[in-house]
Specification:
The chain is an alpha/beta fold. Helices cover 27% and strands 22% of the residues. The radius of gyration is 21 Å and the shape is globular. 44% of the residues are buried.
């Protein structure tokens, strides 16, 4: 059985069909099951795969932490039965799921490849078939002469990306994902070429899952004219909030007004962890480089380094779920757990 790959279907565009089968312009909806869409592609029968799905297939806009936990439990239950795993997923929240799973699947020593498509598999000129077949081959590793990659990855178009480094960058182009601050793990052409030096080392300890997730977090993006009182209003109205991702300018710069700093100080006094992440597509937070970030550093705001917002928010949810102190959260947020941040 270790020569087989398990496909886990969560839904998404790859497996969608038209809500009215007689109207190709009708809205897309998740198919009831994978076989409804895969039946027209007999080539898929050549691959040694088994299939399972979550109880209700979703548009990835409805992805949530409970489903992340459900997927980790499916992997845990089948971990020693399969050579690798392929997760079918919608593109809109794929990077969030890839990041979350990277923190929850501990000591992973086999591939977990997440893929999807910009166009449904049932549609002519779809990118789905290539993405799926390549993902199966990567998950199958030695069956297909591919290096075993002990990571959660995203396979899309002609690249294999570290999951917690990936971002969706285009809503319509087949090159839908990018890894802005970390080189691709693999390039896909006539051959699958893996960049060995970029892949995580094999773990030395036993695999297990850690479903610690607390989603009492929010993301705040500052902009010229931003009124900081809104942050205070939200936190005061919802004392259960334990973390804030603050998306700032450039290298982590933010307003220096007394009102902004005082409100941030008040919020942090309530044991709310505040993480500074840049709004820029590439680059990193370097608090103290400019005066506009020095106050944040003095307050003890956590540096998100070069983490993507998707990695930062899911990592914060994971750490808060472990009931760590704010000081411990800061240490772990500024340390690489599984390659999500450059140190």
């Amino acid at each position: 059985m270790l020569e087989k790959i398990l496909i886990i279907n969560t839904g998404g565009t790859i497996g969608m069909v038209n809500s009215d089968e007689n109207d190709l312009n009708s809205p897309l909806r998740p198919a009831k099951n994978w076989f409804e869409v895969a039946k027209n592609h007999p080539i898929l029968e050549r691959f040694p795969t088994d299939y399972c799905q979550i109880p209700v297939l979703i548009d990835s806009s409805d992805m949530n932490p409970n489903l992340w936990i459900e997927v980790t439990k499916i992997i845990e239950k089948n971990y020693y039965t399969y050579r690798g795993f392929v997760i079918l997923h919608g593109t809109d929240t794929m990077a969030f799921t890839a990041s979350a799973l990277s923190f929850m699947l501990k000591n992973l020593d086999k591939p977990v490849v997440i893929t999807g498509s910009q166009v449904p598999l049932i549609t002519p000129r779809s990118d789905a078939l290539q993405n799926l077949i390549t993902s199966i081959q990567i998950a199958g590793n030695r069956i297909y002469g591919v290096k075993n990659i002990p990571e959660v990855t995203i396979c899309f178009r002609d690249e294999l990306l570290r999951g917690n480094r990936a971002r969706k960058i285009d809503a319509t182009n087949y090159f839908g994902f990018s890894s802005p601050n970390y080189r691709a793990l693999g390039e896909i052409g006539c051959e699958i070429n893996i960049n060995d030096k970029k892949v995580l080392d094999m773990p030395k300890e036993e695999f297990y899952i850690d479903p610690s997730i607390n989603n009492n977090v929010i993301i705040i993006e500052i902009f010229p004219g931003f009124n900081p009182i809104y942050i205070k209003t939200i936190v005061d109205a919802h004392p259960e909030i334990k973390g804030i991702i603050l998306k700032t300018y450039g290298n982590g710069n933010a307003p220096t007004s007394e009102s902004f700093i005082d409100i941030l100080k008040d919020i942090m006094s309530k044991d709310v962890a505040v993480v500074n992440v840049t709004q820029c597509a590439t680059g990193a937070v370097k608090m103290g480089l400019y005066e506009a970030s020095s106050a944040l550093k003095s307050l003890g705001v956590i540096s998100g380094g070069d983490m993507t917002p998707e990695a930062a928010i899911t990592k914060l949810m994971y750490l808060i779920g472990k009931n760590l102190s704010k000081e411990e959260i800061k240490i772990h947020m500024e340390t690489s757990i599984c390659g999500e941040v450059s140190i």
